[in-house]
Amino acid sequence: MKKVTEVKAANIITSKDLIQTGAMKQAERQKQAIKVKIDENLKTVSLSFANNKILILSVDEIPEDVAIYAMLHGFKQKLVDAAAISRDTTTGRTASIDDKYDAVVEVLERLKAGSWNKEREGRENEGGLLLQALIIKVEGKKTIEQLKFYLEGLSSVQKAALKLEPSIKKIIDGIQLSRLSKDVNVRDLLDGLDGI
User: Do 47 and 85 sit in the same domain of this protein?
Assistant: First the structure.
């Protein structure tokens, strides 16, 4: 069982503090040591630290005015992040202010329609290849929720290593191969290398 530790709000370093002190690189290193999980049903945010300490913040513990401000701050970040595009995805040219505006409008409309994230094309990719491979590997001995929770606890390096494990890699290769269009001839693609 992991130990739960409480931290007073005064001990929390904000992104504004980090920018003012020029410690963004340090924050990036710290972020790798912290895993964050949002549980919409329980209305909680859990932070799991690499030292096995966990902090849990519940909306019910926050005064209403602070909760509203936090919500509005989250919306602001979501909208500003949408404008943080450097290139037009269709032309490859530098994104104009109109491109940035359009990106923000798309996110704003999606939020108003009740969706935080953009719907992905091809829902068969949901959960990623590693999750799909683990589902096949465990053959029903674990639930999808158990596997997702397991993967959330792994670092990106651990996930990469798991993908390279021979039995998992074989399953992933099979999934990717099954997705290839039957119209694509890999031999022709390789032969095309001679023409460049």
Answer: no
